[in-house]
Automatic annotation (TrEMBL):
<dbReference type="InterPro" id="IPR003660">
    <property type="entry name" value="HAMP_dom"/>
</dbReference>
<keyword id="KW-0472">Membrane</keyword>
<dbReference type="InterPro" id="IPR010559">
    <property type="entry name" value="Sig_transdc_His_kin_internal"/>
</dbReference>
<dbReference type="Pfam" id="PF06580">
    <property type="entry name" value="His_kinase"/>
</dbReference>
<dbReference type="InterPro" id="IPR050640">
    <property type="entry name" value="Bact_2-comp_sensor_kinase"/>
</dbReference>
<dbReference type="Pfam" id="PF00672">
    <property type="entry name" value="HAMP"/>
</dbReference>
<keyword id="KW-1133">Transmembrane helix</keyword>
<feature type="transmembrane region" description="Helical">
    <location>
        <begin position="13"/>
        <end position="36"/>
    </location>
</feature>
<feature type="domain" description="HAMP">
    <location>
        <begin position="309"/>
        <end position="361"/>
    </location>
</feature>
<dbReference type="GO" id="GO:0005886">
    <property type="term" value="C:plasma membrane"/>
</dbReference>
<keyword id="KW-0418">Kinase</keyword>
<dbReference type="InterPro" id="IPR036890">
    <property type="entry name" value="HATPase_C_sf"/>
</dbReference>
<keyword id="KW-1003">Cell membrane</keyword>
<keyword id="KW-0597">Phosphoprotein</keyword>
<dbReference type="GO" id="GO:0000155">
    <property type="term" value="F:phosphorelay sensor kinase activity"/>
</dbReference>
<feature type="transmembrane region" description="Helical">
    <location>
        <begin position="288"/>
        <end position="308"/>
    </location>
</feature>
<keyword id="KW-0812">Transmembrane</keyword>
Length: 579
C-alpha cells in the first residue's frame, strides 16, 4: 500500500486549486449553460468550410500516395533484373530463374510494405508465362488480368482503373515492336479496406458517414454499408448541384452533404451529416461575446496566478536544484515554510543530497581501496620463472669472471625488484614506469639477445609527466616474453611505441610471435569487456581494471592482431580523467 505523508487537508495544493477553480470557473460554467440555450441557428457554413478543406486534404494525400506508387511502379518497369528475366528466360538455368523470380518477389514485397494502401502487386510477364504477386507468389500467367488492364490502358481512361469494384494502377513495358504485346505489365491493386478505414477517419461526428466515388468508372466505396441509399440519391442531386455543399432530402430526413473532387484522381469524396446534428447549438454568440471573453480572461489570470504561486514557483525551485545537483553541487538545501506536498518533497530532496554525498564518499573510498588491493596483488605475482632465470644468468656471469657485467646485472635486478615491491605511492610518472619496463627488457636481453630483438622507442617529452598506476607496462611485456617470444628459436621481435592526441595517450606493446590464434585474442577481449564478472584476476585484467578505475570509461587495454603477426596490446589513458 502507498503511504502518504501526514499533511493537514487544508494545507494541500489540491484543495487550494479545487477551491480556486470552483470560485473562478463556476460562474463561467453557469454563464456558458445560459448562453448555450441562446446558440445561433446555423453553424453549417463553418462546418462545411472545415469539412471541405479536410476532404481536399484527404484527396491530396491520396494523390501523393498514388504518385509515390506510380514512381515505384516506373522503377519496377525499368528494373534491369526484370528486363533480363523477360528477355533471356530461355537462356537461364533453373537456379538463375529462381534467383531472378525471388529477387522480383522480394522487391514487390518491399514496395507493398512502403504504402498502407497497397493490397497486392502483380507483374505479368508474358514471355515466361508467369505472374508474380506479393499475395500469391509465383503462378501461371494470369491472362484475364493481363488482357483487361492492357486493353484498359489503351482506351486512355483515368489513371485509376476499376475492376470488380477495386481500384488499380496499371503500367506496361512495350517490346519495341509496333502493335506488339508488351514485355510485361505491372498492376497495383489498392486495398479497399484501408481506403474504407481512411474514410472513417474523416467522419467528424459519430452519426456522420463518407463515401468515395468515381463517376466515370462507376467505382463506389462507403465508410458504412447503410450509406448505399444515400449514394443513390447523391448521384442525381450532385449532378444538379454545382456547389461543394448542398442538402439532400431522403425519406423525410435532411442530410448535410459536403464534397470535394480531384481532377488528378478522377475521384470525388463526400461526407453526409444529419441536418439535426448541424442544427445543434454550435454557433458562436455575439451579444455576450465580450462578457464571456472578459470573464474568461479574468479566470485565466486568476488561475494562472494561483498555479504559479502554488505549483510553478515551488516546482521551478525544485527543478533548478536538480540542475545544480547534476552539475555536481551537493551542498545545496531548499528552504520551504509551507507544510504541503512541496514541503515534503523538499525535505526528502535535502535528505537525498545528504545521503548521496555520503554514498559518493563511500564509493570513492571503496574504489581507492580496491585499486590499492589490486596493485598489491599484482606486486605479489613475481614470476618465479623469471627469478630462477635471473639467478641462472647471474651464476653464468660469475663463472665467466665477468665482474663488470655481474655488477651491471645485479644493479638492474635490484632496481627492478625495488620498483616492484615498494609500497609508496600508487601512481608514478610515466617516465618512471617506462624506465622500469625498459630495465626489464635489458635483463631479458641477457638471456635472449641472439634470438629476440627489442625495439623500445623513447618516451615523448609531452608524455613524461603523465601520472599512471604502477606496473601497467612491464607485466604486458613479461606476458609477451612468457607466452610468445620465449617459444621462438630465432628472429623474435618486441616493439614498444607511443602515440598521443588531445584526448588520450596510448602505449603500444606488440610482438611477432605466432602462438596466439584469433579466437584466443577474441576470448581475451571478451574477458576484458566483462571484468566485473571475472573471478580470475590475471595480470592483464588487473591492469585493465586499474586503468578503468583511474581514468574512467574509454581507458584500459585494447587487444588485436599486430602487424607483426603477434599480439598487439594498446594501453589507453584518457587525459581528461587523469589523476
Amino acid at each position: 500500500m502507498f503511504k502518504f505523508p501526514a499533511i493537514s487537508l487544508r494545507n494541500t495544493i489540491f484543495v487550494r486549486l479545487v477551491l480556486t477553480y470552483l470560485i473562478v470557473v463556476l460562474p463561467i460554467i453557469l454563464l456558458g449553460v445560459y448562453l448555450y440555450n441562446w446558440s445561433y441557428k446555423n453553424a453549417s457554413q463553418d462546418i462545411s468550410r472545415a469539412t471541405v478543406k479536410q476532404l481536399t486534404y484527404y484527396l491530396e494525400g491520396l494523390n501523393r500516395e498514388l504518385e509515390w506508387m506510380e514512381l515505384q511502379q516506373f522503377d519496377i518497369l525499368e528494373d534491369s533484373e526484370l528486363h533480363k528475366l523477360a528477355a533471356t528466360w530461355g537462356m537461364m538455368d533453373n537456379a538463375e530463374r529462381r534467383s531472378s523470380l525471388n529477387y522480383l518477389l522480394h522487391r514487390l514485397t518491399s514496395f507493398q510494405n512502403s504504402s498502407p494502401y497497397i493490397k497486392d502487386i502483380y507483374v505479368h510477364v508474358r514471355s515466361i508465362n508467369k505472374t508474380v504477386s506479393t499475395a500469391n507468389a509465383i503462378y501461371d500467367f494470369d491472362t484475364e488480368r493481363f488482357d483487361y488492364f492492357h486493353s484498359s490502358a489503351g482506351r486512355n481512361e483515368n489513371r485509376l482503373i476499376n475492376w470488380n469494384n477495386m481500384l488499380h494502377l496499371s503500367a506496361s513495358k512495350q517490346s519495341g515492336k509496333k502493335g506488339g504485346e508488351p514485355l510485361f505489365l505491372v498492376e497495383i491493386e489498392l486495398d479497399a479496406e484501408r481506403l474504407r478505414d481512411s474514410l472513417h477517419q474523416i467522419n467528424i461526428y459519430p452519426d456522420s458517414g463518407s463515401f468515395l466515388i468515381s463517376e466515370t468508372t462507376g467505382f463506389t466505396l462507403m465508410s458504412h454499408e447503410e450509406s448505399n441509399p444515400i449514394i443513390q440519391d447523391y448521384m442525381s442531386e450532385a449532378n444538379a448541384s454545382s456547389g461543394s455543399t448542398f442538402l439532400l432530402n431522403m425519406n423525410g430526413r435532411k442530410y448535410h452533404i459536403d464534397k470535394a473532387y480531384s481532377d488528378k484522381l478522377g475521384l470525388s469524396v463526400a461526407t453526409y451529416l444529419p441536418e439535426e446534428t448541424v442544427k445543434r447549438p454550435l454557433s458562436i454568440f455575439y451579444r455576450w461575446a465580450w462578457v464571456f471573453a472578459i470573464t474568461s480572461l479574468f479566470a485565466v489570470v486568476v488561475f494562472s496566478y494561483s498555479s504559479y504561486t502554488f505549483i510553478h514557483k515551488p516546482l521551478l525551485s525544485l527543478v533548478q536544484s536538480f540542475k545544480r545537483m547534476e552539475g555536481g553541487a551537493l551542498n545545496i538545501q531548499i528552504e520551504h515554510e509551507q507544510k504541503d506536498e512541496f514541503g515534503y518533497l523538499y525535505t526528502r530532496f535535502n535528505h537525498m543530497l545528504t545521503k548521496l554525498q555520503s554514498l559518493i564518499d563511500q564509493d570513492f573510498k571503496q574504489k581507492m581501496m580496491m585499486q590499492r588491493a589490486e596493485l598489491k596483488q599484482l606486486q605479489s605475482q613475481i614470476n618465479p620463472h623469471f627469478l630462477y632465470n635471473s639467478f641462472f644468468i647471474l651464476n653464468s656471469l660469475a663463472k665467466t669472471g665477468d665482474v663488470d657485467r655481474v655488477e651491471q646485472f645485479t644493479n638492474m635486478l635490484g632496481e627492478y625488484f625495488r620498483f616492484i615491491t615498494r609500497n609508496g605511492e600508487d601512481h608514478v610518472l610515466l617516465s618512471e614506469e617506462t624506465r622500469h619496463s625498459r630495465m626489464y627488457t635489458e635483463i631479458q636481453k641477457l638471456r635472449f639477445s641472439r634470438r629476440i630483438r627489442v625495439q623500445f622507442d623513447d618516451l615523448p617529452k609531452e608524455m613524461e609527466q603523465i601520472k599512471v598506476p604502477r606496473l601497467i607496462i612491464q607485466p604486458i611485456i613479461e606476458n609477451a616474453y612468457e607466452h610468445s617470444l620465449e617459444k621462438m628459436t630465432e628472429d623474435g621481435l618486441l616493439r614498444v611505441t607511443y602515440e598521443m592526441n588531445d584526448a588520450e595517450a596510448r602505449i603500444v606493446v606488440e610482438d611477432n610471435g605466432d602462438s596466439i590464434s584469433d579466437s584466443e585474442i577474441e576470448a581475451l577481449r571478451e574477458r576484458l569487456d566483462h571484468t566485473a564478472e571475472s573471478y580470475e584476476m590475471t595480470g592483464v585484467i588487473n591492469i585493465h581494471r586499474r586503468l578503468l578505475l583511474t581514468y574512467g570509461e574509454g581507458s584500459g587495454l585494447s587487444l588485436s592482431r599486430s602487424e607483426l603477426n603477434g599480439l598487439k596490446v594498446v594501453i589507453r589513458i584518457k587525459l581528461q580523467e587523469e589523476i
